[in-house]
TrEMBL record:
It is found in: Cell membrane. It holds the Pfam family ArsP_1. GO terms for cellular component: plasma membrane. This is Permease. It is a multi-pass membrane protein. Keywords: Cell membrane, Membrane, Transmembrane, Transmembrane helix. Belongs to the UPF0718 family. InterPro entries: DUF318, UPF0718. The chain crosses the membrane at residues 23-43, 55-84, 133-157, 164-183, 217-238, 250-266, 312-335. Its main location: membrane.
Amino acid sequence: MSAPADVAEKAEKPPKEPAGTSIAFTATLILLVALALFGRRIFAGAFTDEGVRTWATMFVGVTVQALPFLVLGVLLSAALTAFVPASFFAKALPKHPAFAVPVAAASGVILPGCECASVPVSAALMARGVTPAAAIAFLLSAPAINPVVLASTAVAFPGQPKVVIARAVASIAISMILGWLWLLTGKGSDWLKIPKNRHAEGTPKFEVFRSSMLHDFLHAGGFLVVGAAAAATLNVVVPRAWLDHVASNLLLSVLVLGLLAVLLAICSEADAFVAASLTQFSLTARLAFMVVGPIVDVKLIALQAGTFGPKFAVRFAPATFVVAILASLLVGWWLL
């Protein structure tokens, strides 16, 4: 009979998604990308209105620019999930939780991971004995300040390195603040449900890599297309006077773009291109869009509720949003 510790390490196989759902999702994504690339040529004769042309140009530009970074981020994130054992982090982090938090937050700079992958990776860290505060810091920092995200931000804002620095500073500060806040308020509570390992014991590494890559690409790619369409629509449909009014008020513009980031749920490898297209707004407001999105949005709230329990999500999401907005305002005032 296996020891209790061995039993705890094992996890049930995750339920497979219906084949029809995956096929339909893939077909829809391919269709949307094809329309993004060739839509203007196909419908050029039918739609000649200047607004439609502007919408199509912005939609295609945001999608095509962001897609390579999205693919790279998904590949690296899947490799991290499949080939780097969770026990590595438990050994690398300091034993004292207060010191483990900033180290875990800083590790997001060198370890790639999109939002879709950060939740299960953080769950695996907790399941392997990493203190929840450090796992939460990694959960927030990995999708926000990894090399792919910072590189895409530099490409989206050419000649403006201060935007990249501001995004990194704000994001790493938020991850540490939330990690320490958990130590003060959540340690020992029943808010957090520590899950079992995501993949079954003995699952081949390449199978984990394949399934993680496919899952993250299908979901993140769909959100990218939706986000590009929403950004283009915002610039074309919403009256310019309204946008100018919102953009002229710093606090209101930061709140509006922060809420927009929550609703759009764009992958962090691509959100900088959407933010760069919102030229009516200040750099501080666009910083809020890039800072809020990777750490709290509708899909992340759902993932966190399903993984860590609703008691955790209902407290964590509002706290994260408030800290992110305040950090964006402070860092924007300081650096931008």
